[in-house]
Design brief:
binds zinc ion, binds coenzyme A, 11 helices, about 15% strand, single chain, TIM Barrel
């Protein structure tokens, strides 16, 4: 399949972020056992990567305060990667104690978002990351880096593609295996995705890049198509479209995994993911939590 340029990849890696990005944005806290069952059901549905939880300050994200228990309790399937978010060395210590196989660092394309999210400048986040990456790599962990608000910031508005890509390049230079360029607030249009990728692919190969879209304005799948046009073969999504955006009350959350898998399947792109099983995992989460997972 081609659309406006390069051939689309024949196989895509779907990164499930529901248990982390989804649940951290839900108003109610899901019981630990329901989170564990959710992660296990998602891996059983064929997702090759299930971002499991976040070892951040429990004051910052109370919904994921049980990260240690969740990461320890999950039954890990061979061949599946279970990254966890880590903001600093303290987070890495917790993650290593819990026996994780992969971590994800996160910084931002804008100084205002960085301050609001992690109480530090972008440069300060890199200073925190340096020892984290060195130790993580020494322990054999796989490392992802996120560039939040790469297509628009709730505090400072439009983002210069060069600024977003500069942060992505620095994450790669630091030693991240993969860099996820994230539309945290669902602001991107396909043209803006193309503009960022045109710059990014001048510095990084397509196979080290991932795209992370929220469906706030209903454009997530169109943005995936823009990514496919540029040869990007890794996309984040959340079962049931979990994770309403805190900056857009009432708006849809992450791109839904079921919708992403169905879209890719219609275009003949393999994912290895059973969309019906993902939908059952989401229904199971809802059953285990009252009505938190709308
Ligand atoms: N795990 C658990 N607790 C942690 C921690 C970690 N990795 N890192 C710091 N803390 C605790 C400290 O012990 C301290 O607790 P106290 O208030 O009870 O004393 C508190 O968090 C503040 O610590 P400090 O080192 O001063 O950090 P900070 O206030 O500058 O916050 C972060 C920095 C990054 C730890 C915090 O802003 C954070 O966790 N943000 C997460 C944001 C997030 O997850 N956003 C969504 C993902 S994009
Ligand atoms: Zn997100």
């Amino acid at each position: 399949m081609t659309a406006g340029g390069a051939a689309w990849p024949r196989r895509v890696t779907v990164v499930e972020v529901g248990p982390r990005d989804g649940l951290q944005n839900e108003p109610e806290t899901v019981p630990t056992a329901a989170k564990v069952a959710f992660v296990e059901a998602l891996a059983a549905a064929g997702l090759p990567v299930v971002e499991t939880t976040s070892f951040v300050s429990p004051t910052a994200i109370p919904q994921l305060a049980d990260a240690d228990e969740v990461a320890r309790a999950i039954a890990r399937r061979p061949g599946v990667r279970y990254p966890v978010l880590v903001p600093n060395e303290r987070g890495l210590d917790r993650a290593l104690t819990a026996g994780v196989d992969a971590i994800a660092l996160f910084t931002a394309a804008t100084e205002t978002f960085s301050q609001a999210n992690v109480r530090g400048t972008i440069a300060e986040t890199f200073a925190r990351f340096r020892p984290v990456v060195a130790r993580a790599r020494a322990e054999g962990l796989w490392v992802r880096g996120y560039v939040s608000v790469a297509f628009g910031c709730p505090y400072s508005g439009p983002v210069d593609p060069a600024a977003a890509v500069d942060v992505a390049r620095r994450l790669a230079d630091l030693g991240c295996d993969e860099v996820a360029i994230a539309d945290t607030i669902g602001a991107a249009s396909p043209d803006e995705v193309a503009a960022v990728l045109d710059v990014a692919l001048g510095h990084l190969p397509a196979d080290r890049l991932a795209l992370h879209f929220h469906d706030t304005r209903g454009r997530a799948l169109a943005n995936v198509a823009a990514g496919l046009n540029h040869g990007i073969a890794t996309y984040d999504s959340a079962a049931g479209g979990l994770g309403g955006c805190p900056f857009a009350p009432g708006a849809p959350g992450n791109l839904g995994t079921e919708a992403l898998v169905a879209f890719l399947g219609r275009h003949g792109i393999e994912t290895g993911v059973d969309g019906a099983a993902v939908a059952r995992a989401f229904t199971g989460l809802r059953a285990g939590t009252g009505d938190v997972a709308r």
